[in-house]
Specification:
This protein is of the alpha/beta class. The protein has helices spanning 78-88, 104-113, 161-175, 196-206, 217-223, 235-242, 257-274, 319-332, 337-352, and strands at 2-4, 7-11, 42-47, 50-57, 65-68, 71-76, 93-100, 117-126, 128-135, 146-151, 181-188, 210-214, 230-231, 247-248, 251-252, 277-280, 287-291, 302-306. The radius of gyration is 20 Å and the shape is globular.
Length: 361
């Protein structure tokens, strides 16, 4: 029985699911770079892997037992979602993460079922669960499902994990033929230092890779000095870091003309100062973006907005990751920036229309 602030939710067991105890694993043997990883175009990184349980209800009644037989389990986390959508788009991508505990075999098995290439370092950190509760039907909620996300915080990684993972990162970017893009997404598990993501950004740029960052907070501010190619937080995350006066009671204030000008100013300042492109997603609302221009252009960085195609949302989890994958895929094909944003938006909409998180098929 899952009890969360007045909700009692009956979780039926998955068919054929093995019972795996939460336990620390013994030291894992070295696992070198696999041959198929040596020919990848995209490297995705997320340091907070997730087992995502999605449960669908016609309605949820707080304070009572809520049962459903409509549920699924997926390997997830923002980086896995990006990798899965890139793979579904026909791109060659490898994911780097940390894994530990008794749930690691299950996680890797789910990745294998999706045809994902995953490189990992032993962390002795049990993989966390996150829960998505979908409620509503066509008759009760015509606009789509109500989506509630319940997030477990991660367990700390063991000492030495960061150093080993950075060594593997260096090995991948040095030995992978055709690698052009690094995409870093999401938060990091407890136990990692604030320097790990900036270090990856710096090393990738020194190797000539293009870098997309879908991160926030100190990791983002410390990575900017290495001039990532694209910065893609959502609007709330961006405002929290670069226009904090627009956040009240942990919510974004109403975006009036004054707030829009403040956001525009901060976006253009980032794009100009760090010579990067900036994209701010905001759910079903307009996408805000700034494109960098050449140094000999006096007009400065170009600011624009992109309309988002309306879609009836079934599950919004993973939409931002599908957007990132679509964007990166299109840019990798040589598509222009505006058109690539359109492809990202298309992939995000496809994800929103499906129950499963982080997919477009």
């Amino acid at each position: 029985m899952l009890k969360i602030q007045g909700l009692n939710i009956k979780l039926f067991p998955l068919k054929n699911k093995r019972k795996i105890a939460r336990q620390k694993t013994p030291d894992a043997p070295p696992h070198p770079i696999k041959e198929d990883v040596k020919f990848m175009a995209f490297l995705t990184v997320c340091l907070n892997p997730t087992l995502q349980k999605t449960l669908r209800f016609s309605s949820i009644y707080p304070g009572t037992v809520n049962r459903t037989g409509n549920h699924r389990l997926d390997a997830s986390g923002k980086g896995i979602n990006v990798t899965r959508v890139l793979t579904q788009l026909g791109k060659r991508a490898v994911h780097l993460t940390q894994l530990g505990g008794g749930l690691r075999p299950l996680f890797l098995s789910l990745c294998e079922q999706d045809g994902l290439s995953v490189q990992w370092e032993e962390s002795e950190s049990e993989i966390r669960f996150c829960y998505t509760l979908l409620s509503g039907t066509e008759s009760t909620l015509p606009g789509g499902s109500a989506v509630t996300e319940l997030v477990e915080e991660s367990e700390p990684v063991s000492a030495g994990t960061e150093e080993r993972l950075l060594e593997k990162f260096d090995d991948i970017i040095a030995r992978t033929a055709g690698l052009n893009w690094l995409i870093i997404s999401g938060t990091k598990a407890a136990g990692f230092s604030d320097a790990v993501i900036p270090a990856m950004t710096q090393r990738a740029k020194e190797k000539g890779l293009k870098v997309i960052l879908d991160i926030k907070g100190k990791e983002l501010t410390e990575s900017l000095k290495y001039q990532p190619d694209i910065v893609k937080p959502n609007l709330f995350e961006f405002a929290a870091g670069f226009a904090p006066e627009l956040i009240k009671n942990n919510e974004l204030v109403t975006i009036d003309d004054s707030a829009k000008e403040r956001i525009k100013s901060a976006v253009l300042d980032m794009a100009q100062k760090y010579k990067c492109r900036v994209i701010l997603t905001n759910g079903s609302r307009k996408i805000i973006a700034a494109d960098k221009v050449s140094a000999d252009t006096s007009s400065g960085n170009e600011f624009f907005e992109v309309e988002v195609r309306p879609v009836k949302t079934v599950n919004s989890i993973g939409c931002g990751d599908a957007f990132t994958a679509g964007l990166a895929s299109a840019l990798g094909d040589g598509t222009g920036f505006r058109e690539a944003i359109g492809e990202g938006s298309r992939c995000g909409a496809l994800n929103a229309a499906l129950v499963r998180p982080g997919v477009i098929l």
